[in-house]
């Protein structure tokens, strides 16, 4: 299975469903929290892809040096927060923060599901 297909199967499809649900909620409510959650969830999906890419590369590597992409994930989170800095009245920082934590929730859920099998 290709790396992207595995990533889509384990993570991206759930992020896409959540983003679509949040877009519908935002269209009806125009809530700043929902817009922040959309931005945080998008950043979280990108961050999860970076994490999965580096994990896959570390698994297939013979090298002693293993990177987790922490710097890139930090920059993705900073970019998401810059949307709040630019549009504080339209975007909630709490929504962005909650959306950014979804990466770690998904990793824990995937880990528990893998342990069950």
TrEMBL record:
It is a multi-pass membrane protein. Its main location: membrane. It is found in: Cell membrane. It comes from the Bacteria. One of its GO terms (cellular component) is plasma membrane. The chain crosses the membrane at residues 7-27, 33-52, 64-85, 91-112. Keywords: Cell membrane, Membrane, Transmembrane, Transmembrane helix. This is ATP synthase subunit I. It comes from Macrococcus carouselicus.
